[in-house]
Amino acid sequence: MLNIKYPVIQAPMAGGIIPPDVAAAISNAGCLGSIAAGGLSITELESQIGTVHALTRSPFQVNLFANDYPEPYAIAAINKELNTIRQRLGIPVIESYSFTTAEPLESYVDLCIQYKVPVVSFTFGCPTPSLVDKLHDAGVTIMGTISTVGEALRMRNLGIDIVIAQGYEAGGHKGGFTDSPSIGLMALVPQVVDAIDLPVVAAGGISDRRGVQAAILLGADYIQAGTRFLNTFESTAHPLHKAAISRAYETDALYTSAFSGKTARGIRNQMMDKLSHLEIPPYPYMNIMTKDIRAAAKNQQQVDFMSNWSGQNIRSSETQSISCVIAELTASFR
Amino acid sequence: MLNIKYPVIQAPMAGGIIPPDVAAAISNAGCLGSIAAGGLSITELESQIGTVHALTRSPFQVNLFANDYPEPYAIAAINKELNTIRQRLGIPVIESYSFTTAEPLESYVDLCIQYKVPVVSFTFGCPTPSLVDKLHDAGVTIMGTISTVGEALRMRNLGIDIVIAQGYEAGGHKGGFTDSPSIGLMALVPQVVDAIDLPVVAAGGISDRRGVQAAILLGADYIQAGTRFLNTFESTAHPLHKAAISRAYETDALYTSAFSGKTARGIRNQMMDKLSHLEIPPYPYMNIMTKDIRAAAKNQQQVDFMSNWSGQNIRSSETQSISCVIAELTASFR
């Protein structure tokens, strides 16, 4: 359904971790390259889509965040702690925030349609039925990220084309949209495959050909890898982030909501420890509140206040080139 | 190394869930049947080993708990809550406990050697080096349960023969021995396989031939299944426990320490909810403290106060016969 040579998808990772030219190269290599629109303005996304189109005729995807906007709460207590971190990093303390509304999801969808993006995926929520119709009318393939069978059924009922089943092992943000316990990929994939009649992408903890083969045997049609693509020479992840992955143990990549207000898996550091006992405002508010801290930490090489996302299959991953990663993940299909 | 026809192990489950004659039948069918010695006296274990020996010449295992005995603490607050549950079940309240010491692990090991048990496995801890030597001198194959690569390395350094890698998905007790985060099986198996040069058993979330094949492709030499063997006509699990598994969703099987003081995965119920915000005394103290409640709940058909252990691969499992389960799990090898 994706019209790609190998059933391998580069996980979309917000923050420009995989630049558009690298995403295009991944697509040219027969996998599905991805642009993560999370955090990008319409103009920035337009530019990235243009770059990918200029560099490949192969399919690629744009990933959109379809999150709700709950009321911000519990801001004051957490901000007190964030200000102690700001003082430590020597950046201005902040006493109040203006949570400006992001551009509506529909604008991003319209842009994708305008620029003939072949595949659009959603995380953190479901698109509305009218957005689904709009995308389908334009011939766009729609993927939706789920963490449970119940979420998969909701995506199926909405008319989504492909479901991305993300397991507990996955690095970065938990992409589903209900406040549910996480399911290990070994248990999640067969239950999703049995429950819906759509193609399924297995995501989380897959880092080499063994994981790819195992996921396919569990019934997945595609696999998605994040950490392996992040820890490459070509990714723009901070060098200290890559070094942390190369050095870490599987027990170091923990769930936290300290950076964004949403559960995400990253390598344990002081930021996670300092905030672990406080009530964290929900996404996207916490994400906005920590933006200056994450930026300053990167500038100052302070790995303890950066979000060093990683999945649990971490021991095998020295920093490599994208082509090595692709060769490994597609080995079973060549 | 286990001299079994199919690389399939019936997970040991304490409480006599799989009676010794059924364990023998599992061994006769070419898998590894198991006696769970946890909670059994020496005399009871002796009798169960006798039954298995009388019914099979094929290999079987005895599983032993090798847990520490930390100081009991936080007894009073939790006991207050347990007494409200006792009143509800109409059983006597308890004001103080005598935590009598269990018979030493060495006595169980000696019994296994005396009765020529072919395989002895350990959970909740490592055997001492002298117990390892004793078992090896007697020709016994030793398996050790681990939840992380670090634990696997400790088992390897001790001279254990086979490592049981138990993933986050597994039902019942987390069998490792450090206070570590859980690792999804998809990430755990390849990392353990790469780190040690011993045979590896994959455990957790495997419920059909797809899971078996996937685990073998990840590098496991054997697989272990628990929930599937528990939810059979032949198991002595409470009928309401089996019904709960047959009815549950994958999101219902949660981690709790409410029943035993150790992390275990079971179907969410009132007991788990009522105690979730209290400090729980460590194993084995909490296990001893809840014994009367668990027994009364079973007698009274009160599923809300029973420990309904289950793994995360739960949707596929109607109650079946053991022979159906074995046919499914061994399908790839026939």
Automatic annotation (TrEMBL), chains A, B:
Question: Does this UniProt record's set of keywords contain Nucleotide-binding?
Answer: no
Cofactor names: FMN
User: Which CDD domains does UniProt cross-reference here?
Assistant: NPD_like (cd04730)
Q: What are the GO MF terms of this UniProt record?
A: nitronate monooxygenase activity
Highest taxon of the lineage: Bacteria
Keyword terms, alphabetized: Detoxification, Flavoprotein, FMN, Monooxygenase, Oxidoreductase
Q: Where are the transmembrane segments?
A: none
Q: Which catalytic reaction applies to this protein?
A: 3 propionate 3-nitronate + 3 O2 + H2O = 3 3-oxopropanoate + 2 nitrate + nitrite + H2O2 + 3 H(+)
Biological process according to GO = response to toxic substance
Q: Which family does it belong to?
A: Belongs to the nitronate monooxygenase family. NMO class I subfamily.
Function recorded in the entry: Nitronate monooxygenase that uses molecular oxygen to catalyze the oxidative denitrification of alkyl nitronates. Acts on propionate 3-nitronate (P3N), the presumed physiological substrate. Probably functions in the detoxification of P3N, a metabolic poison produced by plants and fungi as a defense mechanism.
Annotated protein name in UniProt: Probable nitronate monooxygenase
Taxonomic source organism: Macrococcus carouselicus
